[in-house]
Amino acid sequence: MSDSLFTDSDLPRQAREILPGVIHLPGWLDVTQQLFLVRQFQLFAQRGIPPHSPDIFGKKMSVQMTSLGWHWSNYEYTQSVPELGGAAPLPVPDWIVRLGRRAVEDAYARPNLQWPVEETERTIRWARSYTPDMALVNYYSPQASMGMHQDKEERSSAPIVSLSIGDTAIFRAGNTETKNHPYIDLRLASGDLVVFGGPSRFMYHGVPKILVGTAPTDIGLHSAGLTEGRFNLTLRDTGLAALATAGLPLK
Ligand SMILES: O=C(O)CCC(=O)C(=O)O
Ligand SMILES: [Fe+2]
């Protein structure tokens, strides 16, 4: 039997703490939940900020984005989008907040985390009050990728929740100091959850590659007019609402 019949995708996919505070829960969403999310992404795109590829310092990203709660572009959060005809983000629905809380709790409520226990207990308490006020929907065509970056425009150190739907992606989980080694590449398949918080909240991360043709056929991509590609739903607590309430400048 040829060795090439076996690849790492044949290995069991287990819940794992990839790095301290970075938890991967494969298959966290079932098919019905994925179908629901694909349908919601269509509605967000029709009713809210139209999917677009932001210009980052004059260079267009290959990913298409829409968002709820806040608009993100050029390393800044705003409430209106002049370049898109003044479109404003739709509010973050309650079901997304509940999904985020469940994700943080499921990720950190497990034994033997490398991340010290007291920190973990604190994070489980956070999970109950986790209130993402921003949801980003990224769409990756098979050629799209995302360079190594930190999510650091937020004024909160609450964890980031990330869900994958469609084609499998290679997700690069790095370190908090540089865009380079050390990093770990992992496969994120449709339905997978990654939560990164605590000591890895500000890690560099990116998506170097989409594995074409790996999306399940029963999650509604076809009825959304898509034959391929990957959606990523990222939830964030920007911490900006609290600043605005206190009358402080947002920048
Ligand atoms: O697509 C992903 O898995 C990561 C997306 C991401 O890092 C971001 O939107 O900031
Ligand atoms: Fe990110």
What does this protein look like?
This is Alpha-ketoglutarate-dependent dioxygenase AlkB. Pfam families: 2OG-FeII_Oxy_2. The chain is α+β, with helices and mostly antiparallel strands and 251 residues long. It has a single domain, classed as Alpha-ketoglutarate-dependent dioxygenase AlkB-like (Jelly Rolls, Sandwich), CATH 2.60.120. Helices cover 20% and strands 28% of the residues. It contains 4 helices and 15 strands. The strands form 4 sheets. A 7-stranded antiparallel β-sheet has the order 1-2-13-10-15-8-5, covered by helices on one side. A 4-stranded antiparallel β-sheet has the order 9-14-11-12, with no helix packed on it. It has a two-stranded antiparallel ribbon with strand order 3-4. Strand 6 and strand 7 form a beta hairpin. Helix 2 runs antiparallel to helix 3. The chain is globular. The model has no long low-confidence stretch (mean pLDDT 91). Bound molecules: 2-oxoglutaric acid and fe (ii) ion (FE2). 2-oxoglutaric acid binds next to strand 8, strand 11, strand 14 and strand 15.
